[in-house]
């Protein structure tokens, strides 16, 4: 079992500052490598800081390559609330990253298995993930790797947990089908050279308490980070029980 690099910060802003610092350091060392950034409320602070660092000239996001972590099956970049729409709004658009530098799931495709293989191939061709930035669900999911998921998966399609479906409604102004997801797998996370997890607020306490416990279990996928060779956990004090 590997030791976790845990940092507990006073609040969301200082947590985002600390996580961003590590990501920027990695970009400086590997400016043309492959990166994966989760969507959602928690990582957005880090993404906005990265865009600011890009605009100031501290890093050049346009040299790097990116792969989408996950997507709601049936949605694409034109759908408000989709993961790709989020990335375009918070990262690809503001940093003016060319579409040839990012790979995403065509989640409206009738060939979703092919989409999984295409993502796997894109990652393989870029020599794997340099860094993956993750949030964690209240049920412990990473990306759309839900409780009970196999830790041996690369990209795959999955039935979404009821918790994920319910929490996910906040991203949408209208009702959409949230029963299935397509996602990079736990294997991708473990194979990334660096994994960063950001989590804040009391609602993440249970997931974080499992991560900081001794047991690695597929019922709490976040616990797999204990097996990662270079995982960094940034949380605010409210996420700590």
Automatic annotation (TrEMBL):
**MF annotations from Gene Ontology:** glucosamine-6-phosphate deaminase activity; identical protein binding; isomerase activity
- One Gene Ontology CC term in the entry: cytoplasm
Where do the Glucosamine/galactosamine-6-phosphate isomerase domain residues begin and end?
13-230
Q: Mind telling me which Gene3D superfamilies this protein's record contains?
A: 3.40.50.1360
Q: Which InterPro entries does this UniProt record tie to the protein?
A: Glc/Gal-6P_isomerase, Glucosamine6P_isomerase, NagB/RpiA_transferase-like
Q: Which CDD domains match?
A: GlcN6P_deaminase
Membrane-crossing segments per the record: none
> Which Gene Ontology BP annotations are present?
carbohydrate metabolic process; glucosamine catabolic process; N-acetylglucosamine catabolic process; N-acetylneuraminate catabolic process
Protein name per its UniProtKB record = Glucosamine/galactosamine-6-phosphateisomerase
């Amino acid at each position: 079992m590997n030791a976790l690099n845990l940092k507990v910060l006073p609040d969301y802003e200082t947590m985002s500052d600390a996580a961003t610092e590590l990501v920027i350091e990695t970009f400086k060392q590997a400016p043309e490598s492959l990166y994966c950034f989760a969507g959602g409320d928690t990582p957005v602070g880090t993404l906005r800081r990265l865009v600011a660092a890009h605009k100031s000239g501290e890093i050049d996001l346009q040299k790097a390559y990116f792969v989408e972590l996950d997507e709601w099956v049936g949605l694409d970049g034109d759908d408000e609330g989709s993961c790709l729409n989020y990335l375009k709004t918070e990262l690809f658009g503001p940093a003016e990253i060319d579409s040839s530098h990012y790979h995403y799931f065509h989640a409206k495709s009738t060939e979703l298995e092919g989409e999984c293989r295409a993502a796997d191939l894109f990652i393989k061709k870029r020599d794997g993930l340099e860094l993956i930035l993750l949030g964690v669900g209240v049920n412990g999911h990473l990306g759309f790797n839900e409780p009970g998921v196999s830790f041996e998966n690369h990209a795959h399609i999955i039935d979404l947990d009821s918790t994920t479906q319910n929490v996910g409604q906040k991203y949408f102004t209208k009702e959409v089908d949230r029963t299935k997801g397509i996602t990079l797998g736990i294997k991708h996370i473990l194979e990334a050279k660096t994994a960063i997890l950001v989590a804040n607020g009391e609602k993440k306490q249970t997931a974080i308490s499992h991560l900081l416990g001794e047991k690695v279990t597929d019922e709490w996928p976040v616990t797999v980070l204990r097996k990662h060779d270079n995982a960094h956990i940034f949380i605010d004090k409210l996420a700590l029980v």
